[in-house]
Amino acid sequence: MDRKNVVVLGSTGSIGKQALEVIGWFPDRFKLVGLATNQNIELLEEQVAAHDVPFAAVADLEAGKEFRQRSRGSGVVCLAGPAGLKSLAGLPDADLILVAVTGIAGLVPTLDAIMSGKTVALANKETLVAGGSLVMSTALDRGVQIIPVDSEHSAIHQCLMRGERRFARLVITGSGGPFRGMTREQLRDVTPVQALRHPTWQMGAKITIDSATLMNKGLEVIEARWLFDVDYPDIEVLIHPQSLVHGLVAYQDGAVIAQLGRPDMRVPIQYALMFPEHMPNRLEPLDLAGAEQLTFARPDLETFNCLALAIEAGRAGGTMTAVLNAANEVAVLAFLQGKIPFLTIARVVEETMSRHDLIPTPGLDEILNADRWARQVAEQILSSRW
After folding, report:
1. What is the pLDDT of residue 291?
2. What CATH number does the domain located at 4-148 have?
3. 179-197 pLDDT, tens digit each
4. What residue segments make up the domains of the chain, in order of their start?
5. DSSP secondary structure string, 7-59?
6. How far apart are CA 116 and CA 110, in angstroms?
7. Which residues contact 41 (CB under 8 A, 6 or more apart)?
């Protein structure tokens, strides 16, 4: 395997920090050539110095100006704003762009990387949720590989690499989050602190709340539809509390292939960075005997109706998925700030979707406009009722 030059967009977040750790395991295989953050310039400075990175970008313009002043004389090329992310996404020396920024902010840099012919390791599910058709068609036209970083999609990707047989359905697993088995009555008064106590994964706040509502599984269903070119009836979600089976592929001949692994994001991160090569990692191997049991159950769509809303948006297609994603981001933030109850997240998303005039085949501007519209409407709903 030749040494890969890697850019990490979102290097100061949970996935970005773990990616830098993995890259540090293999100094002869990877060279970091660019890092980007939204605002966390203190950590970005540490990362740039620790890995001797020549290019760095800060998405927030004001923070970017401060970063540039603080980096004077360091020899680091400092970039700021959306133009900075665009420059890193298309950096001539880069071979692979890891997109680990949060939310819709990942869409444009992902498209920039694809247009520049870079291999993309995609850890930002909102990119495909909001713009899946556009992103995948552009990647196909440019002959660009998109390697998933989400543990579930990484698992399915690995299962599909094991043979040329035709598959019948894909199965995405989920832990069920911290509130698995609870009723709607029990969920009425749960707090952000409780919702952030995920039983198996260590993740950022937004994705942890999405796990608690099961919206995360819904977003992953939409993501899987585009990554693997499969219709929604052929994607199944199963609740698997042990979080050891990350994804399964059922083939037409009756065989089912599953991918198992520790609930540790460094495993799929390494897979995406290394692909198509493989190397031993530094983690403890999976101890199946210690697991005692592996259980599976169908999700409760009535109690956790965010999953049902996501599937509904996916089937509607067009700009509806961008609206779903944007309204959810607004509602999750309001919940984290203590402004609304837990169950109101789904109500805000559902009402925002109900007001949207869908555009069936949107371009980039229409996707971004739908995102902005949905955020405004969701904020209006919140301000008028809560």
Report:
1. 84
2. 3.40.50.720
3. 999 999 999 999 999 999 8
4. 4-148, 150-176+214-299
5. EEETTTSHHHHHHHHHHHH-TTTEEEEEEEESS-HHHHHHHHHHHT-SEEEES
6. 10
7. 58, 63, 66, 67, 70
